[in-house]
Design brief:
It comes from Halomonas chromatireducens. Keywords: Transferase. GO terms for molecular function: transferase activity. InterPro entries: C45_proenzyme-like, Peptidase_C45, Peptidase_C45_hydrolase. By secondary structure, the chain is an alpha+beta fold. It folds into two domains: about 80 residues, Arc Repressor Mutant, subunit A (Orthogonal Bundle), CATH 1.10.10; about 250 residues, Penicillin V Acylase, Chain A (4-Layer Sandwich), CATH 3.60.60. Helices cover about 30% and strands about 25% of the residues. It contains eleven helices and 14 strands. An eight-stranded mixed beta sheet has the order 1-4-5-6-7-8-9-10, covered by helices on one side. Helix 3 packs across helix 6, helix 5 crosses helix 6 and helix 8 runs antiparallel to helix 9. The longest helix is centred in the first third of the chain and has 19 residues. It is globular and about 50 Å long. The termini are far apart. The mean pLDDT is about 95.
Length: about 350
């Protein structure tokens, strides 16, 4: 059974890369150390390796980061210093998708929606229950980057969020045995969150590339949106239909050359998202955060539903549930978060970068 959530607060970080990292590590030292234990167990359960083996595997991604986003390594070193752990532990945490999700399952349901001149971006993050209380909200104002908000896991440099230029990004995990050259997923997400404009955000997938498959759903406050099925090669592209892009945890862009191994609930969740957004939400409907959190709270076809609850009938490595839901109104640079399942609380945390 899921433990009750506590109200999240915003962690404000500012200054140089080192300043941002050390403050992150110091403030969230306990959560970071807990995350290291969670992933040590996850690597053992999912892929049968010990933490030391995971550390050795993570080290091979350092050269890729040095080539594509070297500044973020200074921030990782600061996180390690602040938390009192080894920098390779923080590197390993930030490469957890490349170590585990190339061979194991993940979750999440995401969509972008344009209505009445407003650009929305939303998702549920579905993962293992033991990471519920390691969720953090980072508001970062660095000396060399645009202000941004990232909602993710303590000790990690990026995940879901938006920046003050109106660029937002969501993430869907993809299970695939592909892992090549490029930026690790969570490092690439942070680089997108630092993008000064739309083309720079797209360039992370087009030019830097991402070393293991995932889906990045990008949108901008000016109404642009695109789904990018990223991988070491050319990303697959999904353009809006009637102002909508939807995605769950399988690849379906035309011409995709990567093989994936999705969970059985991925297709039903995608079909349900399409039904709710295309068929049941009229093009002239008034849309607000409550409307979209209702979609993220949907239990149709449970347990294969958009809002995911613990299911003891699933194998242990398949027991994912919704740990947070986020809705972004990018035209107004506003992000609203519900910690835990969106169906169980109306309490929200709202941040504005307007």
């Amino acid at each position: 059974m899921t433990l009750p959530t506590q109200p999240l607060s915003v962690t404000r970080l500012a200054g140089s890369r080192h300043d941002i990292g050390t403050a992150h590590g110091r403030i969230h030292a306990r959560l970071i150390q807990h995350s290291l234990g969670v992933y040590a167990q996850l690597f053992h359960d999912f892929v049968g390796i010990r933490w030391e083996e995971a550390r050795q595997e993570a080290e091979r991604f350092q050269a890729m980061i040095e080539r594509g986003f070297p500044a973020i390594l200074e921030e990782m070193a600061g996180i390690a210093e602040g938390a009192g752990v080894d920098v390779t532990d923080i590197l390993t945490l930030n490469c957890r998708s490349e170590i585990a999700l190339t061979r194991a399952s993940g979750g999440c349901s995401a969509f972008s929606l344009q209505r009445q001149g407003r650009q929305w971006l939303a998702q549920n993050w579905d993962w293992r229950t033991d990471q519920l209380h390691n969720v953090v909200v980072l508001h970062i104002e660095g000396t060399d980057t645009v202000p941004l908000v990232s909602v993710g896991e303590a000790g990690m440099v990026g995940k879901v969020g938006m920046n003050a230029n109106g660029i937002g990004v969501c993430l869907n995990a993809i299970r695939s045995q592909t892992c090549g050259d490029g930026l690790p997923i969570h490092v690439a997400l942070r680089k997108i969150l630092e993008s000064p404009d739309w083309e720079s955000a797209l360039d992370v997938a087009r030019n830097d590339r991402v070393c293991s498959p995932a889906h990045f759903l990008l949108a901008a406050g000016d109404g642009r949106a695109m789904g990018l099925e990223v991988q070491p090669g050319e990303p697959g592209r999904l353009t809006p239909q009637d102002g909508i892009v939807t995605h769950t945890n399988h690849l379906y862009a035309a011409g995709c050359q990567v093989q994936d191994f999705p969970r059985i609930d991925s297709q039903p969740r995608l079909q349900r998202l399409d039904t709710l957004l295309h068929d049941e939400l009229a093009t002239d409907s008034d849309v607000d955060e409550a409307t979209l959190f209702d979609i993220l709270s949907d239990h149709h076809n449970a347990p294969l539903s958009i809002c995911r609850h613990f299911n003891p009938d699933q194998p242990p490595d398949e027991r994912m549930e919704t740990l947070f839901a986020v809705v972004m109104e990018l035209s107004e640079r506003r992000l609203t978060l519900r910690h835990g399942k969106p169906c169980e609380t109306a309490d929200s945390l709202t941040l504005s970068l307007a």
